[in-house]
Amino acid sequence: MTTVTGERPSGRDTLADVSASGASLRRFLHGLPGVDQVGAEQRAAMLASRSIKTDSKRQAIDLAIGMIDLTTLEGMDTAGKVRSLCAKARHPDPTDPTCPQVAAICVYPDMVPLVVAELKGTGIHTASVASGFPSGRTSLDIKLEDTRNAVAAGADEVDMVIDRGAFLSGDYLLVYEQIAAIKAAAGKAHLKVILETGELVTYDNVRRASWLAMLAGGDFIKTSTGKVAPAATLPVTMVMLEAVRDFRVATGRQVGVKPAGGIRTSKDAIRYLVTVNETAGPDWLDPDWFRFGASSLLNDLLLQRQRMATGHYSGPDYVTVD
């Protein structure tokens, strides 16, 4: 089932015709099929209503734990808090060695060396926000230096945020060039491009921003910084999943998706996993291609996991307070 409507206009640039020029990008992005808002929201609601059997639920909970980017991005972050978060990343449930590790720890650049040291040998990724996070309103030189510093400190993933003002003004070339430049500065590190979908207003803009980020070289597209409401929503994430699915068909390159902000319960996480499977397909049901930017989600997943193992809920002191 598709949630798009309308025919592609005649004379629209094909993907092969798109070049790094403002006119070419505009023609391509505005030639993408429009999103049927009612259809998208009905489709997301239908997927959210799917029931999951017990064995599948256990697998989904473990999969979701392994997809979490455990994050702290506050001005009052301390070395002690970051060390505690790294310990939780390594052993989310210290009483159960079968509990999966999380996918990554995400911090500000100055905390990257500490995270790298704490996670050495674990296989857990070190992610850092950069490029003037969360507003993105700084010069390109500063964005590039911020990115280089994070990577030099050991980050193997970089989360950048697009200039929403430029995008909403229709200056797609500026956004494209900044993403491409930051991708180059990141080198071998994976680049997650934050669209801040809560400020993009329409599903059509979400689709255009998703394609723009992928065309510019983004390895992941991410909904939100977590600093703007609304953050991640199921319909928005579904539109982004449709974009990465269609992009792979068109180019052969697979791009990941990361909803971030507002995903707090196991039930929420499972709804997202169902949507991933039904929209993009099972190839995306892997931490290399789908992540949750939702630190508070981990506690609920751990409580649900323990309930399924023992038959009862633990008290609130079973999990740490992040």
Automatic annotation (TrEMBL):
The entry's keywords: Lyase, Schiff base
Keyword Lyase: yes
EC number: 4.1.2.4
Reactions it catalyzes: 2-deoxy-D-ribose 5-phosphate = D-glyceraldehyde 3-phosphate + acetaldehyde
EC supergroup of this enzyme: lyase
Entries under InterPro entries matching the protein: Aldolase_TIM, DeoC, DeoC/FbaB/LacD_aldolase
Pfam families according to UniProt: DeoC
Keyword match Lyase: yes
Pathway where this protein functions: Carbohydrate degradation; 2-deoxy-D-ribose 1-phosphate degradation; D-glyceraldehyde 3-phosphate and acetaldehyde from 2-deoxy-alpha-D-ribose 1-phosphate: step 2/2
PANTHER family per UniProt: DEOXYRIBOSE-PHOSPHATE ALDOLASE
Recorded family membership: Belongs to the DeoC/FbaB aldolase family. DeoC type 2 subfamily.
Record's protein name: Deoxyribose-phosphate aldolase
Organism: Fodinicola feengrottensis
